[in-house]
Amino acid sequence: MPLDEEAARVLASSSSMGSLVTIAKHGSLPGRLNAVLAIKEVVSRDGAFVDLADDKVDEVVDALLVIIKALIRLQATKAAMVATYHLASSDERVAARVAY
């Protein structure tokens, strides 16, 4: 289910993204899945990460890579891969980091 503009703006905030990252890294399996799905929805929107600092984007990428490597559930892995693709497509620094 796609997010509306207001929901995407709130989820893209630094504090919300920090919470989603924490859940994606340390939450229960269903929580990790839902966090990654929310991150994917936010990063797939144009300009969603304009206001995030580079260190927060790095935290998001770290969380996504943890999910991809953990293989907790196919749906979570796919969502993390799509989100990583969107981030790498919009930021050369992220692309270089992911390619490494």
Describe this structure in words.
- The protein is an all-alpha fold.
- 77% of the residues lie in helices and 0% in strands.
- It is built from 6 helices and no strands.
- α3 runs parallel beside α5 and α5 packs across α6.
- The longest helix has 17 residues.
- The protein is globular and about 30 Å long.
- It starts with a helix and ends with a helix.
- The relative contact order is 0.16.
- The mean pLDDT is 86.
Question: How many domains, in number, for the residues?
Answer: 1
Tell me how many strands there are: 0
Number of separate helices: 6
| Main sheet summary | none
Kindly report the average pLDDT value.
86
Terminal residue distance? 32 Å
- Structural class, by secondary structure, is mainly alpha
Helix content: over 70%
Report the portion of residues in β strands. under 5%
SSE order, one letter for each helix or strand: HHHHHH
Any low-confidence stretches, pLDDT <50, length ≥5?
none
Features of this protein?
mainly alpha, globular, 100 residues
Give me a quick take on this structure.
The chain has 100 residues and is an all-alpha fold. The chain has helices at residues 5-11, 14-26, 29-43, 54-70, 74-90, 92-99. Helix 2 packs antiparallel against helix 3 (29-43), helix 2 (14-26) packs parallel to helix 4 (54-70) and helix 3 runs parallel beside helix 5 (74-90).
Write the layout of secondary structure elements.
Blueprint: H1 5-11, H2 14-26, H3 29-43, H4 54-70, H5 74-90, H6 92-99
Helix pairs in contact: 2-3, 2-4, 3-5, 4-5, 5-6
